[in-house]
Amino acid sequence: MQNGRRTPHGGRRVIGKVLVLAAALAAAAALTQSAAAVPPTTTEFGSSGSFQLAAGTLCAFAIDVGYAQQGSFTTTYNNDGSIHERVSHGTEQDTFSANGKTLIGDTYHFMFLAEFEDGVRVAYHANGVQERVNLPDGSVFIIAGRIDVLAWLAGGSSFIVSVDSGNAGNNLGTFCAALS
Fold it and tell me: How confident is the model at residue 52, as a pLDDT?
């Protein structure tokens, strides 16, 4: 309005300005939400220990296994702060003992990927070498490939000794013979 009279396009200009202001406020809110998102976190870890594989798990006899590992896991988050993904990278070295004999595995690299939806883990896979041991006859015992860790955990197993796809463990007979 001008001097108490309506101008023909004045209302459209006001609506246009309100729409531009609303768009600017929406963009600012989106930027604020992104800025408030939780940044990725990385945690270093190291562990060692031992356990026993029951007779029949790998060989006809029980095997004592010692392990030492170190690495890190990185967690990324969704804008709402819930976990999106966790990736673990590291190295491990294992020893296998039975019947007074010991085999020492090579240090190997591992990678685990856990995926989440709404903060709930929906997929969990291990990829790469699971074990590599040089055997006394010059051959190698190796397990490598991909493991569905969620399925493995649901089965109640205590040690990953096989893969879903890949090399499920060549030279197992020679491995067992070296420890017998």
Answer: 92
Query: Is pLDDT at 130 greater than 80 in this prediction?
Result: yes
Which residue is listed with tokens 């903060």? 119
Nearest Cα to Cα of residue 84 among 92, 74, 94, 93: 74
Q: How far apart are CA 77 and CA 44, in angstroms?
A: 18
| Helix residue ranges per DSSP H, the chain | 10-36, 149-154, 172-179
Nearest to 131 by CA among 151, 112, 159: 159
Residues 20 and 81 in one domain: no
For the chain, the average pLDDT equals: 80
With CA atoms as reference, report the closest residue to 112 among 145, 85, 89, 129: 89
Q: How far is it, in rounded angstroms, from Cα 149 to Cα 97? A: 26
If asked whether residues 18 and 76 sit together in one domain, one would say no
Q: Do 86 and 74 form a contact (C-beta atoms < 8 A)?
A: yes
